[in-house]
Design goal:
Belongs to the 'GDSL' lipolytic enzyme family. It comes from Lupinus luteus (European yellow lupine). One of its GO terms (molecular function) is lipase activity. This is GDSL esterase/lipase EXL3. The structure is a single chain. The longest helix is centred in the last third of the chain and has 24 residues. The strands form 2 sheets. The chain has a 4-stranded parallel beta sheet with strand order 1-2-3-4, sandwiched between helices. By secondary structure, the chain is α/β, with parallel strands linked by helices. The chain has 12 helices and 6 strands. α2 packs across α12 and α8 packs parallel to α10. The two termini are 33 Å apart. Helix content is 43%, strand content 8%. The radius of gyration is 21 Å and the shape is globular.
């Protein structure tokens, strides 16, 4: 972090030392940027994706909530991260990598997408992408407030700060190039439907499903417009997954047989439909932009309903503890975990395993890559 501190005043006699230091910093950045992983994605000729920037919730978070002691939406403790970096928990809500990491891996940018608030964030990471997502966040400001998560407005403020830091590191022209060609990913809305509407009933007392869906879509639209104004041109928006089929909701509202809660999924489908139409409208009105609605609902639902087809044995329980309610602080070192995580669709009662995330990211990129770039 010392590299970001303002350099002290230099006298004329040491001006050359200051210039040399500046050149060294730029060289370091260039060296780190060139050290990429071997990506699997084949980009069209003369197309580059220098960085990935992510806004989202716990599905995307790679550790921004670690130092937020107010929120219960933390997982920087065992057994989270059991299969990542020697089993050291990093704040990822899974046994290993999450979609944010897998995206930069697939593009060959780097192995992990670091959290913007990571105290060990390196200067070189700014030029290749960071993560603003926060577990518990939503499009609805109340969702983030109840969870003490970083709200969407706070994630955007971090992005603005990021732009300033990047300009100081690589200059305005290079920053503009990076922003224009970066892949922006938005993954929010799950907590709005799951927690604010159905679980706590806070919003259910105020709005019917169509009205609440309109509020969420309006918030998403405002975000996309603001990102565009700040320089984003390639934006992929994940739709909301089938929250009625996650183990926790099956346990709480799925009856004795723990079936998928169809009313929850119906609400998600309605919201996704409205979101898709709004994104299509925005993409037509924003010149030189690619704003793409990406369906994760259908592929994850297919895996959950027919896990055997994808090589899994268990689709209605998580690997941690009983797999029925354990999530965040309820999934801890006192809980046993399954012997073979590759048998499970879910890691805890809300979040899929790295294996499932990997299948989803690969299929999504295969389907939407050329629309995004």
């Amino acid at each position: 972090m010392l590299l970001f501190k303002k350099l002290p005043y230099y006298s004329s006699s040491s001006l050359m030392n200051s210039i040399c230091l500046s050149l060294i910093l730029h060289f370091i950045v260039l060296v780190f940027v060139s050290c990429k992983t071997t990506g699997l994605v084949k980009l069209p000729p003369n197309v580059s994706v220098p960085a990935v920037l992510v806004f989202g919730d716990s599905i995307m978070d790679t550790g921004n909530n670690n130092n937020n002691m107010k929120t219960s939406a933390r997982c920087n403790f065992a057994p989270y991260g059991r299969d990542l970096r020697g089993g050291i928990p990093t704040g990822r809500f899974s046994n290993g990598k999450v979609p944010s990491d897998l995206l930069v891996e697939e593009f060959g940018i780097k192995e992990f997408l670091p959290a913007y608030l990571d105290p060990n964030l390196q200067p070189s990471d700014l030029a290749t992408g960071v993560n603003f997502a926060s577990g518990g966040a939503g499009f609805d400001p109340l969702t983030s407030q109840v969870a003490d998560a970083i709200p969407l407005s706070g994630q955007v403020e971090m992005f603005k700060e990021y732009i300033g830091r990047l300009e100081g590191l690589v200059g305005e022209d290079r920053t503009n190039f990076i922003l224009t060609n970066t892949l922006f990913i938005v993954g929010l809305g799950t907590n709005d439907i799951s927690n604010s509407y159905f679980l706590s009933h806070i919003r259910q007392l105020q709005y019917d499903v169509p009205s609440y869906a309109d509020i969420i879509v309006n918030s998403a639209s405002n975000l996309l417009q603001e990102l565009y104004q700040l320089g984003a041109r390639r934006i992929g928006v994940f739709n909301i997954p089938p929250v009625g089929c996650v183990p926790f909701q099956r346990t709480m509202a799925g009856g004795i047989e723990r079936k998928c809660v169809e009313s929850y999924n119906d609400a998600v489908e309605l919201l996704n439909s409205k979101l898709s139409k709004q994104i299509n409208s925005l993409s037509q009105n924003f010149p030189n932009s690619r704003i793409v609605y990406m369906d994760v609902y259908s592929p994850i639902l297919d895996i959950i309903i027919d896990p055997q087809k994808y090589g899994y044995k268990v689709g209605d329980r998580g690997c941690c503890g009983t797999g029925t309610i354990e999530v965040t602080f309820l999934c801890n070192h006192l809980d046993s975990t399954c012997s073979n995580v590759l048998d499970y669709v879910f890691w805890d009662s809300f979040h899929p395993t790295e294996s499932v995330y990997r299948k989803l990211v690969v299929s999504i990129l295969q389907k939407y890559l050329y629309q995004l770039v």
